[in-house]
């Protein structure tokens, strides 16, 4: 069980990945993303999650350079966007991301969405980058069980991570069990339900009980489920608050209470039905 912000899970290939990181989706390129990343690193965050599609890789790279923390001590994730999927185009997209980040390697490279008819070729490119040592771990994002089974049927290297929408309204029980069985680390995006956590009575009740905020309750729930999580914020106090989840534990009963909120509700797109 994670006890500190620096605590890590160990991926199937032995690479250590922090349990908690900073997500920068919808964070503007330039000073906004630079300040958020610098603030997070200063507070002890060691994992930063970006993507080509977020258009802020340059700012993330700049903040990392200026943070004064050794590159080896950080865990940087980026993702290949749908329009770039396919073998050659993924390899090109990776070079572009690497140049923008100003890094020599990334720690985790993900296929952003399971684009039909393309994600297997994309995966082959990720396997090549992995074998060449240009990325320390490879994985997928928004893959359902059937996408994973399809990929596992003929991949050479298994995905080490699957980053999906995960929160009390979407507990992904079947997917969680499948990933556990296949040694694929599940990671949550939008863990705070795009801000909605503050409006859920059961979550607010637990926040009062534990003397924590609704966001902290849900992030703790993620961690106790063994799910890596990357809450996004640009506000210094919120970045700090999101990391303050290592000094308490939810009871089994309260974990079950949150599990029971599931309604298979997505705030983001459906991985089986998206058109971008």
TrEMBL record:
Matching InterPro entries: AKR (IPR020471), AKR5G (IPR044500), Aldo/ket_reductase_CS (IPR018170), NAD(P)_OxRdtase_dom_sf (IPR036812), NADP_OxRdtase_dom (IPR023210)
Domain NADP-dependent oxidoreductase: residue ranges: 20-262
Residues the record marks as active site: 54 (proton donor)
Alphabetized UniProt keyword annotations: NADP, Oxidoreductase
UniProt keyword Oxidoreductase present: yes
Chain positions of site Lowers pKa of active site Tyr: 79
Keyword Ligase: no
GO terms assigned for molecular function: oxidoreductase activity, acting on the CH-OH group of donors, NAD or NADP as acceptor
Positions that bind substrate: 112
Gene3D superfamilies, sorted: NADP-dependent oxidoreductase domain
Domain of life per record: Bacteria
TM segment ranges: none
Pfam families, per the entry: Aldo_ket_red
Family to which the UniProt record says this protein belongs: Belongs to the aldo/keto reductase family.
Protein name (record): Aldo/keto reductase
């Amino acid at each position: 069980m994670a006890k500190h912000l620096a605590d890590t899970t160990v991926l199937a290939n032995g690479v250590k990945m922090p349990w908690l990181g900073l997500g920068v989706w919808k964070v503007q390129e330039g000073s906004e993303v630079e300040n958020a990343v610098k603030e997070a690193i200063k507070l002890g965050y060691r994992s930063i999650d970006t993507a080509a599609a977020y258009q802020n890789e340059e700012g993330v790279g700049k903040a990392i350079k200026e943070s004064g923390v050794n590159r080896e001590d950080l865990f940087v994730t980026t993702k290949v966007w749908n329009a770039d999927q396919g073998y050659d185009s993924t390899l090109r997209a990776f070079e572009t991301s690497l140049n923008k980040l100003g890094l020599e390697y990334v720690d985790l490279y993900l296929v952003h969405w399971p684009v039909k008819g393309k994600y297997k070729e994309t995966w082959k490119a990720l396997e090549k980058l992995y074998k060449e040592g240009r990325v320390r771990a490879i994985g997928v994002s928004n893959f359902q069980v059937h996408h994973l089974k399809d990929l596992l049927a003929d991949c050479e290297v298994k995905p080490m991570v699957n980053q999906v929408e995960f929160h009390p309204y979407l507990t992904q029980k079947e997917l969680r069990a499948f990933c556990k069985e296949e040694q694929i680390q599940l990671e949550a995006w939008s863990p705070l339900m795009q801000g909605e956590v503050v409006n859920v009575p059961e979550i607010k009740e637990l926040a009062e009980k534990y003397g924590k905020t609704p966001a902290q309750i849900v992030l703790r729930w993620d961690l106790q489920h063994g799910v890596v999580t990357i809450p996004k914020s640009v506000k210094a106090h919120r970045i700090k608050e999101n990391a303050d989840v290592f000094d308490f534990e939810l009871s089994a009963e309260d974990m079950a209470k949150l599990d029971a909120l599931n309604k298979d509700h997505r705030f983001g797109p459906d991985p089986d039905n998206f058109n971008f």
